[in-house]
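SEVERITY: medium
COMPONENT: batch folding queue
REPORTER: lab tech (J.R.)

DESCRIPTION
The queue accepted two submissions in a row. Attaching both inputs and their returned structure tokens so the on-call engineer can compare them side by side.

ATTACHMENT 1
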Amino acid sequence: MFGNKKEDADVTTALEQVGTIIGPGAMLEGPLTTKDSTRIDGTVKGNVTISGALIVGQGGKIEGTVSAVNAYIAGEVVGNVVSPQGKIEISDTGKVIGDITCKGIIIDENAVFQGRCEMTNIDKNSAEIAKERAAAEKTSEESKESKENN
């Protein structure tokens, strides 16, 4: 589910140890905070902060910012998803409308993701090189525009 056999085993263990379940048909308004792995098959309108793994089932919907160690999304999330040291997987039935911040990401075919993704595992040198390239491109474009205007 999260890309390799060791991590799949970890996720399976997390699934077996789900401590909080928001069942189908349940609706929660307001923030949800848990210290254990959580599965959401109902609707949560508010920010979700999970200290373990988050599983959003096919019928699950979250409207708000999501923060979790790892997240598996088969339902819908309308809001930003943050997992700076973990992985986010959007299954083929999953939909995320919002920005994602994570160390690793898997987006299945037919999944929907509309937003930006920031990877936190990029080393400092790569980030600096990317900034320098962007600045050089901007300078080049500005120079070209000023020549066209003259």
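ATTACHMENT 2
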Amino acid sequence: MEITLDQLLASRERRQQRQNSLMSDHPTQTLVCLTVIMPGAVKRNSHSLIIANAAITAVLECFKGTLSHIEAHDLTTGYEAYFLTSINPMEAKRITTELEDTHPLGRLFDLDVFHPDGTPMNRNEVGRQPRQCLLCDNEARYCMRAREHTTAQLLDRIREMVDQYVG
């Protein structure tokens, strides 16, 4: 099912509110938020669910024994999950960037880790390069802003990655 821009923006606002609430209620814990990278107007489909399940499994394994809260939502605007861990934000960001960079579907995981003040950490804070485009050697943000590739090209690449993963 296609979503509208208004629905997408409303979901981002709700996610921000949930993140703020979790951080306020658990000030000694580190918040990790998961969303699935899925370009286009359809955010929930069979591929996004495979990616989400792979991400959840990987996060649970990487943060085993440190999680105090796990919350997941399968929404038409996209899958999202929240994790609270006892690991400090810097180490949590190292773990999540390693996961994004090494898991076969990690390039399709968006794992945000937050500073205690609620601002998201950047990859460069833990010595990681910006994310690379799914289709070329440019930084992903450059291609996204310049609209270098069509949604169809990106979705074809995502399908390839998921098909290889489930093989």
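NOTES FROM REPORTER
Residues 5-25 form the longest helix (21 residues).
No errors were logged for either attachment.
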